[in-house]
Amino acid sequence: AQRVTQPEKLLSVFKGAPVELKCNYSYSGSPELFWYVQYSRQRLQLLLRHISRESIKGFTADLNKGETSFHLKKPFAQEEDSAMYYCAPSSGSARQLTFGSGTQLTVLP
Amino acid sequence: DVKVTQSSRYLVKRTGEKVFLECVQDMDHENMFWYRQDPGLGLRLIYFSYDVKMKEKGDIPEGYSVSREKKERFSLILESASTNQTSMYLCASSWSISGNNEQFFGPGTRLTVL
User: Fold this and answer.
1) Structure confidence by residue, pLDDT tens digits, A39-82
2) Are the Cβ atoms of B35 and A32 closer than 8 angstroms?
3) CB of A35 closer than 8 Å to CB of A72
């Protein structure tokens, strides 16, 4: 069965500190991997995808196929990064997403 | 700018009622999806559609059905609402193009079943 695990439900860091949100997946084949973010009172939106290998809002995510992990990292957290973050592999006929349970990140001043 | 709209932001229904949730997208996307979002469980896929009149079950289809008569519209139907269907329902849409299948989400409908 396809599974996505985000082990931390809640994560708090101080402004300026590094942050890492963990994601492990168990998937057949080679899924595309995404991080989605939901800021307070806003829609869920794409943060980044592994195939583009880009940095968005200072966040990066490295796909480690050996460990089947796709952790999200940022070297210096900002208060505006406070949000709910979801890791989501994509596969299937409509490239449907399987979401992890999410990590609520709070960046403290 | 992609727009996904949902018919209601808040909805209160009684047990046993038939409930319709509507979703419309304006970007000619082939794929449309219905999720429910619950604290601690993340988003779970209920049903999806990759073309007009085509539908496939997601991970938790029990108690739900869907309809896609037009490309831009995807409806979620609760035939007989139950209290355990109280949740936030999110609609999304995407293209089928490989490498460009970002999903765009609607604002959500918070359904309460009494």
Assistant:
1) 999 999 999 988 777 778 999 998 887 878 999 999 999 999 99
2) no
3) yes
CA–CA distance, B76 with B35 (Å, rounded to integer): 10
**In Å, how far from its chain's centre is CA B91?**
4
CA distance A36 to A85: 6
CA atoms within a 13 Å half-sphere pointing along the CA-CB vector of B108: 18
Contact A94 B31 (CB under 8 A): yes
End-to-end CA distance of chain A: 41
Within an 8 Å CB–CB cutoff, is residue A89 touching chain B? no
Q: Confidence band (pLDDT; 50, 70, 90) for A9? A: very high
Helices (H) and strands (E) in chain A, counts: 0, 11
Would you say A87 and A50 are in contact if contact means Cβ atoms under 8 Å apart? Answer: no
A101 contacts B48? CB cut-off 8 A: no
Q: What is the largest CA-CA distance in chain A?
A: 44
Q: Please give the structure tokens belonging to residue B75.
A: 């409806």
